[in-house]
Amino acid sequence: MTIYALSTGPGISGLAVIRVSGKETFNVIKLLTSKTKFKPRVATLTKINKINTSELIDEGLIIWFPGPESYTGEDMAEFHIHGSKAVIEALHKSISSIKDCRLAEPGEFTKIAFQNGKINLLKAESIADLISSETEMQRQQAIRIMKGNSANKFNELRTKLLKILSHIEAKIDFPDEDLPKDILKNIKKTSSEVLLNIKKILEDQKVGERIREGFKIAIVGPANAGKSSLLNHLSKRDVAIVSEIAGTTRDVIETHLNIDGYAVIVSDTAGITESKNEIEKKGIKLALDRAEDADLKLIVIDAINGSFKGILKDLMDENSILVINKSDILDKDLQPELKQFDHVLISVKKNLNLENLILKIKDKLKNKFTINQDILITRARHRQHLEECLQCLINFEKKNTSEEFDKAAEDLRLATRHLGMIVGKVDVEEILGSIFNDFCIGK
Which of 80, 174, 247, 424 has a 20 to 30 Å separation from 52 between CA atoms? Predict the structure, then answer.
């Protein structure tokens, strides 16, 4: 089938791009323009008419990309037209009337590019990440993956494993032949090198996933300490209801922010207090769960009446900032026990010292987002396959004797398969749907 779709965003715009890919692509161009010649990869200004009539749809640019030298590896074309809803619908309707043409599914153009060997699976995912990037760090990370360093590294490790696997399989196929001692030695050396490489890649503090998904900040503290007011201030809008009545927030309220190019998810939580109310208890449990899962905790207490002991004190660690609110009504020195913690004295109501709190948050972000290596894990799928590969190599190391070649070969086969699953070197049909369904239609 030949597929088509709007590749630019919906809505009124000066320009819209409709992309077509498949065997019927040039036939689509001919039927819409009545022209039989187009220079490849050159923008050609032409009139675009409805099929079998002289009624003009629009006048625009057509770029013809003969396969395999195209994004998808198939014959492909782009129609650059005016971005009105009526023009787009008229062109879509005309293309849909052509035999063997249908609307593309989400991510189908990129899926075809992968299947035709134009890109690997990591690059396909990085294209999706680039399209959906909202911060500078997310954009930079997507570009880094697109450059191919990660894919090249995984392919290099996989090639090394395939080489030693071939030696082991040779021993299985020809049991009467002894492998040279230097080959046995190299098998051990190479597998250990690959194992150490994967361990190093996995020791990344999940920086890549944090950049892609967002750095998690949980605002926790007792009821009526000003948590929701702080969330509203950071968001620069009224995200949460603010009231003098304690216990207004019972569920977790989330907002997505961009702080200096870093994607951040800030969660306001229920007040942590002693309560017999079942609903409040559930809210407090959600608050504690969110605090445990967070990359950074802002523990907010009241400067006058705020108690800092028990659960709240236990939450303080290197990934926490003690935020002492309502400093505008503080008429005495801060309690000595509070001064020993990493803290910021603020007043959300009077907008006092909030800049210092934001600076502290930024410093924590920079420390967490420090990238110490070129190879980034950006998705849980990658991490899972690397962990499985590592376990297979550990099992292989345990069996790496001449008497256990059969079992050792199976461990290596599984290890190479898991590396291959990351870049798409093996049959990955079962994961393609979930990956490409995250794309927008037209990409």
Answer: 80
pLDDT digits (tens, 9 = 90+) for 224-241: 888 888 888 888 877 654
Q: Mark whether 332 and 358 lie in a shared domain.
A: yes
Both tokens of 214, joined, read 């967002």
- The phi and psi torsions of 110 (rounded to 5 degrees) equal -70, -35
Strand order in the sheet with 262-268: 253-259, 262-268, 215-220, 296-302, 320-325, 343-345
DSSP assignment letter at 155: H
pLDDT tens-digit profile of 179-228?
A: 566 677 788 889 999 999 999 999 888 888 888 888 999 999 888 888 88
Domain end, chosen from 335, 368, 401, is at: 368
DSSP state of 18: E
Query: Is the torsion defined by CA of 126, 132, 138, 143 positive or negative?
Result: positive
Domain count for the chain, please give it: 3
- Verify that 357 and 414 share a domain, yes or no: no
CA distance 178 to 201: 35
- Residue 132 DSSP SS3: helix
Residue 125 backbone zone (phi > 0: left; psi -120 to 50: alpha; other: beta): alpha
94-97 — which CB contacts under 8 Å span 24+ positions? 94/31, 94/32, 94/50, 94/51, 94/57, 95/4, 95/18, 95/20, 95/28, 95/32, 96/4, 97/51
Same domain, residue pair 219 and 359 = yes
Contacts of 31 (CB under 8 A, 6+ apart): 51, 52, 94, 98
CA 396-398-402 angle, 5° bins: 80
Residue 225 belongs to domain spanning: 211-368
Tokens of 404: 């256990």
In a domain, 138, yes or no: no
pTM of the predicted structure, to 2 decimals: 0.80
Q: What is the bridge-based pairing of β-strands 215-220 and 296-302?
A: parallel
Tokens representing residue 85 in the block: 């809803």
